Amino acid sequence: MQPDRHPRLARILLMRLPPADRIAGLAAALLLTGCAAPPAPAPVVPVPPEAQAPTDPEAPTSAQCPPTAPEDGQPIQQLLAQTDRLLRLAPPELAREIARLSEAEDASDEAPLLLAIALAQSRQPVDTARALGLVQRTLGNNAPAAQPLHSLARLMEARLLQQRRLEEQQERQAQQLRDAQRRSDQLNERIEAVRTIERSLATRPLPSPPAAPASSNGNSTHPPP
Fold it and tell me: Which residues does UniProt call coiled coil (predicted)?
């Protein structure tokens, strides 16, 4: 039974009581009404805390990139060691080494570059042009094994281009010197020809003057008085 219906029920019961007991019943009803416990408040539902993702104290705060493997510098080291050996060779030994490397030009990716280094030591224009072609061939090789050689090949290309410019400049100067020498020789020949003519004129005898004509009959002719 709901609490708000208690007073109504109490009044009905009091009306059915005799007048003598009605006053006592009214007092008891008032007492019960005052002592009745108030309705219990609705239970408070606790608000659950916000769900939080579990944190791992050992988890890294930032993504870490995997370490990159170091590049293999073995071909470069071998090439530099062989280059140092080539620089110490005498001209006859260098010529033999160039012949040997020419036979093994296609044996490996670094063989053309090593041959170019050897050819560059001869200081000959034809060898410089050949070495430059070998270096550019190495730069055009995109194989993974040839990629570490490109840096050294670019340095060699710059050096060979400069060497070729110097050789072309020396060739032009030599050609100008040859032209000047040829003109000098022609001028000397002309001067010598003029001197020869002068000497021939100096040694030639002078012609004698013509003799006077002789008179006829032994008589000299005198002009009339």
Answer: none
Structural domain boundaries enclosing 21: 8-32
Two tokens at 6?
């208690």
What total number of domains does the chain contain? 2
- Sequence-distant (≥ 6) Cβ neighbours of residue 168 within 8 angstroms: 125
The 3-state DSSP class for residue 88 equals: coil
- Is residue 113 a contact partner of residue 131, using CB atoms and an 8 Å limit? no
The more confident residue out of 11 and 36 is: 11
Residue 100 located in a structural domain: yes
User: pLDDT tens-digit profile of 64-115?
Assistant: 444 343 345 566 787 788 888 888 888 889 889 889 888 887 778 788 888 8
Instruction: Kindly state whether residue 144 falls inside one of the protein's structural domains.
Output: yes
How distant is the alpha carbon of residue 60 from its chain centre?
36
Asked if 112 contacts 102 with a C-beta cutoff of 8 angstroms, the reply is no
Q: Is residue 183 part of a domain?
A: no
If you search the block for the tokens 């493997």, which residue do you land on? 69
178 within some domain: no
The structure tokens listed for 141 are: 């090789």
Return the H-helix or E-strand segment holding 196: helix 150-203
- Nearest one of 141, 138, 149, 140 to 71, comparing CA atoms: 149
Of 147, 164, 181, the residue at which a domain comes to its end is 164
